[in-house]
Specification:
The strands form three sheets. A five-stranded antiparallel β-sheet has the order 6-5-4-7-10, with no helix packed on it. Strands 2-1-3 form a three-stranded antiparallel β-sheet. 8% of the residues lie in helices and 32% in strands. The chain has two helices and ten strands, in the order ααββββββββββ. The structure holds zinc ion (ZN).
């Protein structure tokens, strides 16, 4: 079983903005690049992105490549067709991934039977091509 982003689902992706372009550039390089507070005593990694650090409020915030690895904190399995573009991948999981850096990200674990998805399972980032040179964020079993 091999997952791919259909044209219909690719249309639903958010457009890159000036703020989050480093994230999209990272995915195209196969990396999970997120914001990292530059204040030594803070060092917060954060997602989603903002112009300031959610933890300490500093606007001295940059971007770092994470390990791209973490574990499933929790998940749900979606059986209902909420949008026509997702009909061909039912059932699928929506997972909260806790990165090794401590930040949690909502994503999907792909290339796995939904019955095999487990809390605590180690996963790694697995960006998938989504047309026009863009990549979408996904994870797979590590
Ligand atoms: Zn901070």
């Amino acid at each position: 079983m091999s997952f791919s982003v259909s044209e219909d689902r690719a249309k639903l992706l958010a457009e890159p903005t000036e703020l989050d372009q480093p994230f999209w550039d990272g995915l195209a390089e196969g990396k999970l690049r997120i914001q990292h507070c530059s204040i030594d005593t803070c060092g917060n990694y954060q997602y989603p992105f903002e112009t300031f650090c959610f933890r300490c409020g500093s606007d001295d915030i940059g971007w770092d490549d994470t390990s791209g690895e973490g574990e499933i904190h929790t998940f749900v399995t979606v059986h209902q067709r909420y949008h026509a573009a997702f009909a061909d991948i039912l059932p699928y999981n929506v997972s909260v991934i806790e990165l090794d850096e401590g930040t949690r990200i909502v994503s999907n674990v792909i290339n796995i039977d939904t019955d095999d998805v487990k809390i605590g399972m180690r996963v790694k980032v697995a960006p998938q091509p989504a047309g026009d040179g863009r990549y979408a964020l996904f994870f797979e079993k590590a």
